[in-house]
Amino acid sequence: MKTSTSERKHGIQWKAQNQLDDLDFADDLALLSHTHEQIQMKSSHIAAVSGSVGLSIHKGKTKVLKYDTENSNPITLDGKTLEDVESFTYLESIIDKQGGSDAEVKTRIGKARAGFLQLKNIWNSK
């Protein structure tokens, strides 16, 4: 995967001299770009490089999250339009198109509440 993402530098500015091009863990990959054209090029390049070694991208599982943009043009792979989403979960964290943490905080509070409710009977027993 490093070979397929390192050749083109179209990520987001991370630090003064560093750029973040993608987030990857095991077989999950989140591509990052500032423009529609850059993400389309990255996606097509990843598909081509992956295909050359016998791997394929599951287009039904591949999603596009557009942050702070009015561009409504679709991202396509092999002629198939990828689904635009309002949010997605990456490594148990919710990322949404507003860039905030509200959805993440609500989800974590809900999980904590469920955990406490499971313990309620134990705490109330005599």
From TrEMBL:
The name this protein carries in UniProt is Reverse transcriptase domain-containing protein
